[in-house]
């Protein structure tokens, strides 16, 4: 148990009490000794020449170790301690040793404990007829029963147990070595191993096998996944997971390493299956981040796959585009710097034939700095940016390559009037130079500049009702003007426009640099928020944009087309942490919904429910010939203390079919985890087919940091 320092302190405390009277006393080692210890007992008595007896509620305290017993006697002639129980030795890291009687050396490094039990991390219990302490490191136990299951009169037989002739616990390595081990389930022998090594519960990372998983899929057949964790020092590890099934031989891997200045993670797999016979299928994903000098951060992302259907066939990922990137970034209070290179690859069925016409490589550089000059009030922001992207195709128009160099300067100031109105003023100018290749519709070199200005008025008002609720109402009005002056360039980065609460009062609602919002316009909005003393709250908001002239910059699906935009409606509701609702919608004057997104969640002690709904009208400009109408549901119910059921599903309401569905059943107590899962993917293409996946995993908790969710309740 590593008690050598405690033994020295205990011996010190005992000898300090040689002349004590027969009363309740407490002894504390003086600073002259190596450490301080306390011995507390009802009676302390000197017997004969050099023997000392402490009896009655004996407690010894030293640093994070506590020893309790009914009687402790020290024999100076043999330099040993005789301890009568019940004996309990508790250490700070969570191990507890319990025994009926013990005879130990004075330094507690060696000795014997009778009818003893070792409890590790309040989980794993090891009962033994006898426990020997050796060299203050090893605990040797004979005729052992080990289990993390609670045993009580109502259930005297543990759900599982390991019986062994002998067990050695190495405290330094935090390993348990079983000799002649027999695993029993409900007291029925399951298998026998002459040698078995398992990590104790305090060890979070140890080389060895992880719980296996049985997996059945309609495309791969039934197979067994057997992960093996390999500890590569204190800062790296590798997990290899062979998966052998009727139609595949797969090796999955995960590699992690932490460095002084960052960390990396790689996951991947390689397969030989019947789906694509004779081909080696694989995927490799990686990511990492490192701290560089002068507050810079280097990050990278790696995504490679052998064929478009591999990720979906094996359920590794739903990604339909791959991204490989490396970037350097620095973010400070008044400065932001970014530079990166990105490569994209598509897995989408419709895009694969024209993949050479899609931008595959992109270079980005961006610098922004905030300035607060003394000669004028307000905040200035100066920007410099560079972006270039390339296509593999050499065809005219379809193989267009574009590079852009941009600069911008903006000014912002806000102040509060005497009446409480918040005034915000903005002004700025952006300029960009473009170089365009392989597109005969545009000159090779073009440029434009966009001046802009705007003013926003906010008037927040609040009140406290008679019930103690707080209402906050805020009307907002915004006037803006901007004009893109110069050549017209191809729109590569501003196609998908999102109109929401975050940009209702912006000078431009385009997400990129290729387009700027032109003309004079006004935006109005109103929000109402209430917080009740009972804990519930809600926010309702509405807004709209008006234009003097419709310049045709926006599509119908954006909600911003015409001289008046759709109404932007938003709501948030929170009922005491039990129910939450968040949604926004774009509604036109005919009360038709252009876009809507709603999320809801309900949570109790036993029930969890979530739902998400999305609707977007068709828009060929956004490469969406059909409307998007999708519903997602997920939930879980705690049937009892140990049983939990869950379900989830994704439904394409436009196509009137399910996209994905899943069911899960889990049993978890303090010593066992059983997880069953069933999922079905209904979508199909030329690359993938619908797949049903069944999984079963069984884990005995109590080893290597595994912990059950709840303790078993004895007596019902």
Describe the protein's topology:
Layout lengths: L3 H13 L8 E4 L8 E5 L1 E5 L3 E12 L2 E11 L4 E11 L5 E10 L5 E10 L3 E11 L3 E10 L12 E11 L4 E11 L2 E12 L8 E2 L3 E5 L3 E5 L2 E4 L4 E10 L2 E11 L3 E12 L7 E11 L5 E9 L4 H4 L7 E12 L2 E12 L14 E11 L7 E12 L10 E16 L5 E16 L7 E14 L2 E4 L5 E13 L2 E2 L32 E13 L4 E12 L19 E9 L3 E9 L5 E11 L3 E10 L11 E11 L4 E10 L4 E12 L3 E10 L9 E10 L16
Antiparallel strand pairs: 1-2, 2-4, 3-4, 4-5, 5-6, 6-7, 7-8, 8-9, 9-10, 10-11, 11-12, 12-13, 14-17, 15-16, 15-43, 16-18, 17-18, 18-19, 19-20, 20-21, 21-22, 22-23, 23-24, 24-25, 25-26, 26-27, 27-28, 28-29, 29-31, 29-32, 30-31, 31-33, 33-34, 34-35, 35-36, 36-37, 37-38, 38-39, 39-40, 40-41, ...
What does this structure look like?
With 716 residues, the protein is mostly beta strands. It is built from two helices and 43 strands. It has a 26-stranded antiparallel β-barrel. β25 (361-371) and β26 form a beta hairpin. The model is unreliable at 1-34 (pLDDT under 50).
């Amino acid at each position: 148990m590593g008690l050598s320092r405690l033994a020295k302190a205990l011996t010190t405390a005992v000898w300090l009490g040689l002349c004590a009277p027969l009363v309740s006393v407490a002894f504390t080692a003086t600073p002259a000794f190596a450490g301080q210890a306390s011995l507390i007992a009802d009676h302390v008595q000197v017997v004969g020449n050099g023997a000392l007896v402490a009896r009655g509620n004996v407690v010894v305290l030293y640093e994070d170790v506590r020893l309790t017993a009914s009687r402790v006697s020290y024999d100076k002639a043999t330099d040993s301690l005789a301890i009568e129980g019940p004996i309990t030795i508790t250490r700070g890291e969570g191990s507890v040793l319990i025994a009926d009687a013990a005879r130990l050396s004075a330094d507690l490094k060696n000795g014997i404990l009778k009818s003893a039990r070792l409890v590790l991390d309040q989980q794993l219990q090891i009962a033994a007829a006898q426990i020997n302490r050796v060299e203050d490191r090893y605990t040797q136990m004979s005729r052992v029963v080990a289990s993390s299951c609670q045993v009580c009169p109502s259930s005297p037989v543990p759900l599982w147990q390991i019986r062994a002739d002998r067990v050695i616990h190495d405290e330094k390595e935090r390993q348990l070595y079983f000799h002649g081990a027999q695993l029993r389930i409900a007291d029925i022998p399951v298998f026998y191993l002459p040698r078995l090594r398992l990590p104790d519960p305090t060890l979070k990372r140890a080389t060895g096998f992880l719980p296996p998983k049985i997996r059945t899929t309609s495309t791969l057949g039934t197979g067994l996944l057997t992960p093996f964790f390999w500890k590569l020092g204190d800062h790296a590890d590798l997990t290899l997971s062979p998966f052998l099934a009727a139609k595949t031989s797969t090796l999955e891997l995960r590699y992690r390493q932490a460095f002084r200045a960052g960390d990396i993670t790689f996951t991947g797999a390689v397969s030989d299956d019947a789906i694509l016979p004779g081909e080696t299928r694989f995927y490799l994903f990686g990511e990492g981040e490192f701290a560089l000098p002068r507050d810079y951060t280097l990050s990278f992302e790696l995504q490679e796959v052998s064929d478009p259907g591999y990720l979906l066939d094996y359920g590794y990922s739903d990604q339909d585009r791959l991204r490989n990137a490396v970037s350097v970034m620095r973010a400070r209070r008044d400065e932001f710097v970014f530079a990166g290179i990105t490569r994209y690859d598509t897995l989408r069925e419709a895009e694969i034939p024209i993949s050479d016409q899609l931008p595959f490589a992109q270079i980005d550089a961006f610098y922004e700095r905030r300035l607060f000059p003394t000669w004028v009030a307000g905040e200035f922001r100066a920007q410099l940016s560079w972006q270039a992207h390339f296509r593999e195709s050499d065809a005219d128009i379809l193989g267009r390559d574009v590079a852009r160099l941009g600069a911008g300067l903006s000014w912002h100031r806000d102040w509060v009037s005497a009446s409480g109105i918040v005034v915000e003023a903005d002004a700025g100018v952006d300029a960009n130079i473009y170089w365009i290749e392989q597109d005969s519709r545009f000159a090779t070199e073009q440029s434009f500049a966009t001046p802009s200005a705007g003013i926003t008025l906010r008037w927040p008002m609040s009140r406290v009702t008679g019930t103690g609720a707080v209402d906050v109402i805020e009307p907002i009005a915004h006037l803006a003007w901007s004009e893109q002056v110069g050549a017209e360039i191809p729109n590569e980065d501003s196609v998908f426009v999102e109109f929401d609460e975050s940009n209702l009062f912006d000078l431009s609602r385009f997400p990129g640099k290729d387009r700027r919002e032109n003309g004079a316009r006004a935006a109005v909005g109103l929000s109402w928020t209430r917080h009740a003393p009972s804990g519930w709250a809600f926010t309702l908001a509405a807004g709209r944009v008006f234009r003097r002239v419709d310049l045709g910059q926006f599509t119908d699906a954006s909600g911003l087309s015409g001289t008046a935009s759709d109404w932007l409606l938003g709501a948030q509701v929170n009922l005491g942490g039990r129910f939450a609702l968040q949604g926004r919608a774009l509604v036109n004057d005919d009360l038709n919904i252009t876009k809507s997104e709603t999320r809801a969640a309900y949570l109790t002690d036993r029930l969890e429910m979530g739902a998400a709904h999305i609707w977007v009208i068709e828009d060929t400009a956004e490469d969406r010939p059909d409307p998007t109408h999708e519903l997602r549901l997920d939930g879980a119910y705690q049937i009892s203390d140990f049983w939990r059921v869950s379900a989830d599903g994704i439904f394409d309401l436009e196509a009137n079919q399910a996209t994905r569905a899943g069911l899960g059943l889990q049993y978890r107590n303090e010593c066992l985890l059983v997880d069953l899962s069933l999922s079905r993917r209904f979508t199909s293409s030329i690359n993938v087919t619908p797949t049903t996946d069944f999984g079963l995993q069984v884990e005995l908790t109590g080893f290597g940091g595994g912990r059950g969710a709840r303790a078993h309740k004895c007596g019902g």
